[in-house]
């Protein structure tokens, strides 16, 4: 079994920073793309950032230049450094990852449980 566990959310004032973490654990052979999504109340879940296993990255236009995604391959962990936060960044943030399960070689795409980020004006 493979799971993702997020941490690092919280309440911050506009202009502040937060750093989210998401650790994959379980029977892992390898981890490919890792992504952060967010979902605000009444809105669809949207892709925030993606990082490949070679470190290449993509960002949503709304966070480009403010957020930075990174990963620690040795720890199967992805991070999201969020700077210059705005009230419109308020949402539940979820991570997911493409994982090849050890022994079975099944391809899994689990989701984390989500972590709340609230930015006050």
Concise summary:
The chain has no helices and eleven strands. The protein has strands at residues 2-7, 10-13, 18-26, 28-39, 46-51, 57-59, 67-72, 77-82, 91-101, 107-108, 115-120. Strands 2, 4, 5, 6, 9, 10 and 11 form a seven-stranded mixed beta sheet that branches. Strands 1-3-8-7 form a four-stranded antiparallel beta sheet, with no helix packed on it.
Distance between the termini: 41 Å
How can the largest sheet be summarized? Answer: 7 strands, mixed
Say how many strands there are: 11
Mean pLDDT comes to: 97
Order of helices and strands: EEEEEEEEEEE
Roughly what fraction of the amino acids lie in strands? over 45%
Give the fraction of residues assigned to helices.
under 10%
Form type: elongated
Number of helical runs?
A: 0
The poorly predicted ranges are none
The class by helix and strand makeup works out as: mainly beta
Rounded to the nearest angstrom, the radius of gyration is 14 Å
Describe the structure.
The chain is mainly beta and 121 residues long. Helices cover 0% and strands 59% of the residues. It has strands at residues 2-7, 10-13, 18-26, 28-39, 46-51, 57-59, 67-72, 77-82, 91-101, 107-108, 115-120. Strands 2, 4, 5, 6, 9, 10 and 11 form a seven-stranded mixed sheet that branches. The N and C termini lie far apart (41 Å). The mean pLDDT is 97.
């Amino acid at each position: 079994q493979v799971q993702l566990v997020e941490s690092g959310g919280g309440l911050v004032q506009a202009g502040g920073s937060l750093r989210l973490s998401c650790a994959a654990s379980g029977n892992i052979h390898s981890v490919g793309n890792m992504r952060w999504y967010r979902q605000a109340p009444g809105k669809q879940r949207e892709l925030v950032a993606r990082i490949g296993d070679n470190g290449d990255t993509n960002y949503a236009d709304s966070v480009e230049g403010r957020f930075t995604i990174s990963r620690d391959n040795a720890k199967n962990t992805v991070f999201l450094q969020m700077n210059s936060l705005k009230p419109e960044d308020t949402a539940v943030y979820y991570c997911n990852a493409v994982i090849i399960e050890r022994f079975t070689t099944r391809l899994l795409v689990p989701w984390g449980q989500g972590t709340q980020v609230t930015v006050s004006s």
